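Trying the structure run again after the queue cleared.
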Amino acid sequence: MDFRNFDVGLLIALDALLSEKSVTRAGERLHLSQPATSIILARLRRYFGNDLLVSTGRRMVLTPLAESLVQPVRNCLLQIQHTVASKAEFNPSISNRRFCLAVSDYVTAVLISQALQEIARQAPGITFELARLDETIEQRLEKGEIDFVIRPMVHALSMHPKEPLFEDNHTCVVWSKNSLIGKSLSRKQFLSLGHVSVHFGHASAIFEDWFSTRYGEIRKIEVVAQDFEVACRLVVGTNRIATVMSRMARLCAEHLPIRLIPPPFAIPTVTHCLQWHRYQDQDPGSIWLRALLKQVASKLIRVGHSKKAPGPQNRAAIILKDS
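Done. Tokens:
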């Protein structure tokens, strides 16, 4: 097989064809006409001595060889991209780079909102896309479609670099007029009342997994919410309980009629980490953003349990250290 004329452009076209499994869609991605893309496919078929894409009914599928090329080709392109980027200078004040971060509503509220304020001052031309944590996140990180993932350390991928950002614990949230719960919550009360559970699409929140593993299905789960802020809202006007991350609970207590009560048992602390693709390790833009996120995270104070909801005037003290 002679690869002397196999350039990066062909590699990009091969990646598009393998990913899209369609000459038309690959052409659109490459900004080429369908005939031009078909010519490239024919050239690739000659190089590999394989059809790569074959018609099956009304769709095209990859041959076994093509399937085996998907991840190596993507990795090769990512390595080229980030090798070139690592040699370039990065000036945040004039950069118009776009970053994609996969984060939960919780991380957005307690960290990203603060980070974006600082970024607006340092790098007004940089833009962001905040993607939800779902079942495609790991694949998108592997493909280089996502720059960073922020989530609990226990869910981090082993093959990519990561750094701890901050820790948090859990708080029980009840309606301020809940007639069944006083200033404290017993284990018996916790188990007897209805619960608002949090699940992020296909995945459960850390507490839900931990409780189920340790105690089994002994709670009365009456409502399943998609995020922590919604869970806090859904206890209002009821005698239900939600167990959520303390930082989010305190933010919600500023505008919702809720009370925060320590759980009746010890729940492990959760460490949230920042993770990126291994090929981005030396990318100057990635290094800059990692440092900024760590700086903002370092200003988050420890969150303890409080029986009294904070007022709006205390928000800065709760979220950030005095600077």
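The CA atoms of residues 1 and 46 lie 9 Å apart. Worth checking whether this holds up in the mutant runs.
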